[in-house]
Every structure is written in C-alpha cells, then in structure tokens.
Specification:
single chain, about 260 residues, alpha+beta, Aminopeptidase, two-stranded antiparallel sheet, 8 helices
C-alpha cells in the first residue's frame, strides 16, 4: 500500500485494497492511469503534455478513490468523488456540461458525483470492481449521502450499432422513472433499429452501476471528444444492493430515509 493513500476500512481483500489518494504524487498516479486508458486506449483528445496526465478543473475539489494490488502496491483502478458541497466551490458538477441537472437539484438530501472511473486493462475483473464499489458504498454511508450519480460510457467504434443495441437493453431493464430523468445537451443521434445476433454485453462500468442498484436516467449524451455515448445513472441509497450495503447500513435508517424522501 502506498504511503500516499489512506486505507479505507472493510475494503481490503487478499489481493486488492482500497484507499483515498492524499498526496500530489498519489493523485498524479490516478491521473496517469486515466490518461493511459482514456487517451491511449479510447483515443480521447486529452492534452496531457509530456507527463501524460489527465488533469481537469475538477480534480482539486475531488476525493480520489484508489484500488491497489496488495502485494506490489500497484495502482489498478481509480475513481473520483465530487460531493455537493465541493461542487459549489468547483462551479458545479462535471455532468452539468453534458446534461440538464435540474432533476438532481430537486432531490431531497445529499448528493455526490462519481466520475473518471477506470481500471487497468490487466485487472478488469469482478474482484477489482467489487473492491472499488465497496469503497464507494462505505464512503456514501459513512458521509451521509442519499444519492450517487455519474456517467458511464459506451464506445461508438463501430459507428454506434452496438451502443444502440445496449441502449435498447437498458431501456427495457434499467430505466429510471420519468421524474428522475435528465436531458442530454447533445443527444446521441437516433439510428435505425437493427436486430442483433445476440444480446449485447453491457460495458463493465455500466454493469457495475446496475449491480449496485443504480438506474439509467434517460437518453445518452454524445461525447464527440471521447467518441462514446454517456449514460447518466443515478443511485438512491435506499436501493443500494444488499451485498454492498450489509456491512455499513442500518436497515432502520434506510426505512427512515425512504419515508422522508417519499419515494422508494
């Protein structure tokens, strides 16, 4: 474990351990991993300079969750959290550049945004994602948040046919109620429906969000810079899947929040 990370409780496993990057060096590690994946793998247009870092205006206001290989200390996954109070200091949430967030402003209780999530190509397995999501669950509960939201991307490398097949699957199984939907500022163009030979596979991050208990909130945003469709997802903490919640949640508190919010 890096001395530049603070270890989170209950999130350590035999192979991986979650933490929060606290030093400039540890945060730079997360930015380097992001650059390697977003620019190197996805071909995103990121001005990372000679250092090869993905840095933006929001980083100083975020908490940077990390997952490291226990034996080597190698950073294998990361995500960043922008809380509601820090978003005020940052000038708003990152997602506001892609979606109309009036719905988020109307939610009762505290909200937090998750973004820039990435996993090293050699470690894209259920174990790493489970550790990262367990860390998120711990952060949500211990800091008293009521909602988590963020964007998950679907690549458009084939022109969008696979993305639209995935979006149809999301529409059928994972869509939020109409009152919880947001409007994309640059909608993905509609494509002719083409029957797929087999059911499309959800991208790992989207699959992880849905396994957590999140719902998709309407039509995706067309991100030309990253050549992808961004799906806005929202998690009500009362819907947090039991396998993530059982170590941290008092069920009576969940019931109390449900009564206050007036929605399940």
């Amino acid at each position: 474990m890096s001395e530049a990370d603070v270890t989170l409780s209950h999130t350590a496993g035999p192979r991986f351990v979650a933490g929060v990057a606290t030093s400039p060096q540890a945060i730079a590690e997360t930015q380097a991993l992001r650059y390697r994946i977003f620019a190197g793998e996805m071909g995103a247009e990121i001005d990372g300079g000679e250092a090869g870092l993905d840095i933006d205006h929001y980083d100083p206001y975020c908490q940077h969750l990390t997952v490291r290989e226990t034996a080597t200390g190698r950073l294998v996954a990361c995500t960043r959290i922008l809380t509601d109070d820090q978003a005020i200091r940052a000038g708003g949430f990152y997602s506001a550049g892609e979606f109309d967030l009036k719905m988020i402003d109307s939610l009762p209780g505290r909200v937090m945004e998750v973004g820039r999530t990435c996993v090293d190509a050699e470690f894209r397995n259920g174990a790493v994602i489970a550790v990262l999501w367990q860390a998120l669950a711990e952060f949500i509960i211990k800091n008293g948040f009521d909602y988590l939201f963020g964007c998950a991307s679907i690549g458009l490398e084939d022109g969008g046919a696979n993305a639209h097949a995935i979006l149809r699957q999301i529409q059928q199984k994972y869509m939020a109620e109409s009152w919880q939907q947001v409007r994309p500022l640059n909608p993905l163009p509609v494509a002719d429906a083409r029957p797929a030979d087999k059911a499309p596979r959800l991208p790992p991050l989207l699959k992880a969000y849905f396994s957590l208990g999140a719902k998709a909130c309407g039509e995706p945003y067309w991100d030309r810079e990253f050549n992808c469709a961004d799906v806005f997802v929202l998690l009500n903490v009362t819907d947090l899947h039991p396998r993530y919640a059982r170590h941290f949640l008092d069920r009576s508190k969940i019931e109390e929040k449900t009564l206050v919010a007036g929605r399940a």
